[in-house]
Amino acid sequence: MKVLLTGATGYIGSAVTDHLTAAGHQVVALTRGAEPQPGRGWHAQVVGDTADPASLAGAVTPDIEAVVHLAPPSGDADVDTAVIEALAAPLRGTGRPFVYTSGVWVLGATGEAQDIGEEAPVNPIDIVGYRPQIEQRVLAEVAEGVRAVVVRPGIVYGRGGGIPAILVDRARQQEAPEYYGEAGVRWPTVHVDDLAELFVAAVERAGAGTVWHGVGESAVPVRDLARAAGRAAGLLAAPRAVPLERAAEVFGPLFAGALALDQSVSGGAARTVLGWRPERPGPVAELVSGSYRPVEVFGAPDGPETDAEVAAIRRLVAEVEHAQQNELVDRFLGVFRREDPVWTTGHGKRLSGFEEIETFTRKVLPGAMAESTAVYDVERVLFLRPDVAVVNVRQQPVRPDGSRIADRPEGRPFYVLVKEDGTWRVGAAQNTVVAD
Ligand SMILES: NC(=O)c1ccc[n+]([C@@H]2O[C@H](COP(=O)([O-])OP(=O)(O)OC[C@H]3O[C@@H](n4cnc5c(N)ncnc54)[C@H](OP(=O)(O)O)[C@@H]3O)[C@@H](O)[C@H]2O)c1
User: Does ligand 1 lie within 6 Å of residue 351's CB atom?
Assistant: First the structure.
């Protein structure tokens, strides 16, 4: 389909462009400026400004087979209503899709209710005050023969952007991770690439008049996100609560209120009905060892294939950390290659072969993490061959609550990884304690 996309230069719009294009559609980007933007993957570009609905008059030409409206609200309900009119009117009587982007904030605080669905009544917080009206205005287009659809994303993460990037920046500036409002606040979240796939599904097959929650994880504790954002900023410290009044001074009262909003929202309907599969890593993993923490990579070309290998390697190192922190002997052993692995510990003990590693781990790991454990961050990956990688890791000692143990030295583990049968495993490992 030829799809007119507003907000195509933005965070979500960039991912939606990629996934629409990958699914064989052509994106016609509506941009405010006329200057060409090569490299974005657009089929064509038209100029228009949603602050000036009259400027959209010619955007939906007869060859446009779908409209995805991602540009943000203007702040004026009348202007936004006129924008819907301008973009939807040319589709009337065609049955073509018009997909409007709202957000889960229209649901307000969800309180005791868990995993609420699309049938729940709206209760918008101030920052999205009139947005439910715009949703209704969009859905009213069904009566005019438009396949009108509303998507409500949760808090979007991934590709190093979105609101989680604000948490990382703030942690860096304040030298401490922060969350806002009450300790029990939870956010529904969605990976930007998963969300983009939901937009593709909505364009291709969502029924007229339907509303979909674009939510991968229904209620992620914001304290966990803050801790992970701290780690992305290189900080190992317990997150601190910033009272709402203080957050309002930093972000303004409307956005602060949204950050402090507690919600539990389900994206189950889109999975069941549209076959949507949001399977990318969750926001905590993404912050700790994903796109918010660039890694130095050598020996492989830039591109999605290398990114995927690096992501898989980081998952392996995250598995080392998880297995060690939780004293999971079998999972720890699972990271090693079966054939002749070698591991030299930080104390210089060389374990040669799987059996020696297994015997040592079964003896040493259980009970070892009661008072102190460690976090592992991949810093450098060198691909010696496409299936052999040397990985430099920074290991920092932490207490079970994740805070840094100041008087313990760091380690610098070094792994030689081998990819066999599609899976990266440790063939050789050596740890060196950093002497100050
Ligand atoms: N990010 C989230 O977590 C999240 C969650 C739920 C819902 N949403 C909703 O999703 C939509 C997209 O969000 P986003 O995070 O991708 O935002 P974003 O990164 O700020 O991108 C906004 C996009 O809209 C365009 N735009 C802004 N004002 C415009 C105007 N007056 N006329 C035409 N285009 C205009 C921008 O173009 P320029 O290049 O010209 O600036 C940009 O392409 C918004 O409606 C937002 O409320 C976002």
Answer: no
